[in-house]
Model the fold of this input.
Amino acid sequence: MAQKTDLYQVLGVNKSASKDEIKSAYRKLAKKYHPDNKETGDEKKFKEVQEAYDILYDDQKRAAYDRFGFAAFDQAGANPGQGNPFSGFSGFQGGNPFGDEGIDLGDIFSSFFGGGGSQRRSQSAAGPLRGSDIVMKLTVDFMDTINGKDVSIPYTYDMPCPDCNGTGAKTPNDVKTCTNCNGRGYVRVQRRSLFGVVESQEVCPTCGGKGKIIVNPCPKCNGKGYIRSKIDLKLHIPAGINNGQQIRVSGKGERGRNGGPNGDLYVQMDVKKHPIFTRNGNDIYVDLTLSMVDAALGEDVEIETVYGKKILSIPSGTQPNTTLRMKGYGVKDLKTGKPGDQYVNVKIVIPTSLKRNEKDLLNQFKALRQGKK
Done:
């Protein structure tokens, strides 16, 4: 290893090269030195290019190489196939020297170096798979999120067949292991390529990747394992839930595959705006309009809260835009039940026109105030 050429030099890139630059350099050199390229093919250099790409394209291997050089791979070696740089690349420029079949080097390199990904997908296809979760929005009134409410909404989903429990078979004995793939869900297929015979894995055409064959299908679901169901979904909107928060309904998401369970349904709250109240967390904000006289003298006023009308004492001498706190009149916390507060923003109204006696009284008040100076 110690006498090998520096991997960055092999690909002709700087040590600070990005993964895209490494991939681009590898594509060009692999095409140039591939043994089947009659003009510039070089098997030794092709292997060097492949080894350089395998190490430098992998972040962990690259970090180890930058720190320890080839010594980092003396024991374990480099694993090929860390990504397919030939995706979307077919043939060579100036014509395809391998005939008119349109060989796709991306497919060939995927099979030759990195077929494990498709193998894992095929294997997983044979077992039960949980369905995906679904998110739906529900428009609710502001006050329903304050006090809580039970609602019923029409909902349609694919529910596991109650007769066969999602297997699709009339009885448990009607489910047989697929003899074509021996229950694995995939089969090995051999194809000729520029490398010779290449072996890959594909979903079993007999069982569709399930690994099982249904001899007698369930009459209720016709072997599907699920039925389309329209229901009135009962949902409790808890007091204190806020806009954008979700309620989870187990088992009402997308249907599972191969007998797997349904995913979950998440109902997201879309809360309508209230004409008076504004919510911030568990606190409520509301405006209160006062005359200048009531603000100056002080007054007990009736004010709206989310729990009905309450009496609020306005201190004498209250100034415009003063905020008064009503403790405990906010929203109850969704978890603890402890309420927030209500904050009242006081707005003072100045009359735009005055009667003569009102002006006289204000002038008397003005004179009194000036006499105190």
Observations:
- The two ends are 98 Å apart (CA to CA).
